[in-house]
Amino acid sequence: MGREGIVSNLSVPRGVKLCCEICGRPATRQCLKCRVTYYCSDEHQDIDSKAIHSTLCPHFPAFRNPPPVAGSTEERQKKKKEMEQLQIDLSETALSYATNFLIAGKFELAMPAALQSLRLGVSVFGANSSRLVPAYLQLGEASVGLGKLQQ
C-alpha cells in the first residue's frame, strides 16, 4: 500500500498528535487516498488495508474532515443525521467483515475490522452504549485467536 505516504513532522500542526489506526502509537505513515488515516508502520497499514480500510476509505473524509458549517439549521441537522447514519452503516459493515474473518480463522484481519466498528460505534452511540457489545466481543475473540488473551 502507501509506502510513499510518509508523514513529515513539519506538515503536522503544533499540538496535533497523529496516532496509528491499529495500535495507537505515533504515526509516521498516511493513507494517500483518504488522507485522514495514519499508521506507525507499513505492516499496520497493510493489515488494515487488507482487513477493512480499503472498503471504508472513500467514506472517511466525509466525517473525519467535515466541510465547514453552512446552510440553515434544518440543513445542518439533516447533514448531521446523514453522517450519523453513514457511521452506523460503516460500523455494521466493519462488524460483518470482522465476523467473516473470525469464521475463517483470520484473527489478524478481524482485529482492525472490529476496532473500526468499535470506533465508529463510539462516535455515534457514545462509549457506554450496549450497541458496542458485539464489537467488543469480536475484539476479544480475535485477541484470544491471536494468543493475546487467555480464555
The percent of residues in helical segments reads 40-55%
Structural class: mainly alpha
Report mean pLDDT, rounded to a whole number: 88
Point out poorly predicted stretches: none
Largest sheet: 2 strands, antiparallel
- Strand content bin: under 5%
What separation lies between the terminal Cα atoms?
34 Å
How would the blueprint of this fold be written?
Layout: E1 29-30, E2 38-39, H1 42-56, H2 60-64, H3 73-103, H4 107-125, H5 133-145
Antiparallel strand pairs: 1-2
Helix pairs in contact: 1-4, 3-4, 3-5, 4-5
Give a quick precis of the structure.
The protein has five helices and two strands. The chain is mostly helical and 151 residues long. Helix 1 crosses helix 4 (107-125) and helix 4 (107-125) packs antiparallel against helix 5 (133-145).
Structure, explained:
There is one protein chain. The chain has 151 residues and is an all-alpha fold. It is 55% helix and 3% strand. The protein is built from five helices and two strands. The protein has helices at residues 42-56, 60-64, 73-103, 107-125, 133-145; strands at residues 29-30, 38-39. α1 (42-56) crosses α4. The longest helix is centred in the middle third of the chain and has 31 residues, at 73-103. The model has no long low-confidence stretch (mean pLDDT 88).
